[in-house]
Amino acid sequence: MSGRKLDQLYRQVIMDHYKNPRNNGTLDDESVTIDLNNPTCGDEIHLHLKVENEIITAAKFTGSGCSISMASASMMTESIIGKSEKEALKMSRDFSEMVQGHEHDVIDENGDVEALSGVAKFPARIKCATLSWKAMERAIFEFEGKK
C-alpha cells in the first residue's frame, strides 16, 4: 500500500474513533477515576479503570478535546481491556515510543493504535495523543497503592 493510501486509511481510523468513541462513559464506585488535562490545548480526560486480580476488566472515559486525544482514548481503552497491568504499562511505553517516532513493539492486535504513528510528524500533538495513556498509567499506580 502506498504511503498516501496508508495515511488516508490512518486518518479514517482516527476519525472513526473520534466520531464513534469506544468505551465512552463512566464506571461504578469499584473503579478508579483519573482526571488529566493538557493545559497547552485544553484537552481533558476522565478515565475510569477497573482492575481485578491485576487484570484490567473495564475501562471507560469521558472528556473533551481534539480528534487525536479523543481517538487515542478510545483506542487505548479498547486495547487494554483484558490485559494485565504489566501488559498495559508496556503498551503505554511502546505507544510513547511510537508517537515520538522511535522503534516500538506492536501495541494492539487490531492495529488501530498504529494509526496514531503519524503524530510523530507533529510534535505539538504528542501530548494530545499520550494524555489518556498517562491517565491509564496513573490509574494503575493508584490501584497498586491500594493493595
Automatic annotation (TrEMBL):
Annotated InterPro entries: NIF_FeS_clus_asmbl_NifU_N (IPR002871)
One record GO biological process: iron-sulfur cluster assembly
Gene3D superfamilies per the UniProt record, alphabetical: 3.90.1010.10
GO molecular function, one term: iron-sulfur cluster binding
Entry coiled-coil feature ranges: none
A Pfam family this chain is assigned to: NifU_N
Record-stated family: Belongs to the NifU family.
Name of the protein this chain belongs to: NIF system FeS cluster assembly NifU N-terminal domain-containing protein
Organism this protein belongs to: Listeria grandensis FSL F6-0971
